[in-house]
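Hi all, long-time lurker, first post. I run a small reading group and we've been trying to get comfortable going from sequence to structure in the token notation. Rather than ask abstract questions, I figured I'd post a concrete chain and ask someone more experienced to write out its structure so we can walk through it together at our next meeting. Sequence below, copied exactly:
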Amino acid sequence: MTRPAFSAGPKAVLWDIGNVLVRWDPRTLYSKIFRSPAERDRFLGQVCTMDWHVAHDRGVTFAENRAPLLARFPEHAEAICAWESRWWEMFSGAIPESEAAIEGLHARGVPQFALSNMSHEVIDGIIAMSPAFRRLGGIVISAETGLTKPDPRIYRQACDRFGREPADLLFIDDSAANIAAAQALGFHTHHFTDPAALRPALAAHGLLD
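-- Answer (accepted) --
Happy to help. Here is the structure in token form:
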């Protein structure tokens, strides 16, 4: 009888950052700017859209990226500029469950890294949001590479940077598309949708008690 191949568990953790380690939502800011949720959602659905924002993650500066919008929507100039000038009002702090997990993993000697779609203009300020970032052995952000998740190439770049194979890593992300791409490459994964489910997931992978 042929024995099944032994499947080792992950030996390290690869974290996403936005809405996994820190809470980020443009509505947090634009609820202050627009009088009604309908106006806010219309602006975010037609002007400063997430498709538009992806350019920041690819390395385009805030100034460069807003210029075409200012020309097209001059009536929204103040709100468009707020994407940069009031950027930090989109955040509502670090996620305590994730901070606690990072500290617990650090105490057990589990290596930790991060892979995030993020502008190079904001990374320093985001890292300053929580001391837990100090526990990470390295961070790859999309703006440094010109590639964004779920492009398989950025996952491979992260593995090369950190000297790890996908099978060695538990990848944690809030995006189903990013999780699917990681699974296809051989990562262990946890789809982060509920902070309370994080520690049990880490325990199930043998990384925490």
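A couple of things your group might point at:
The chain is about 45% helix and 15% strand.
The longest helix spans residues 96-107.
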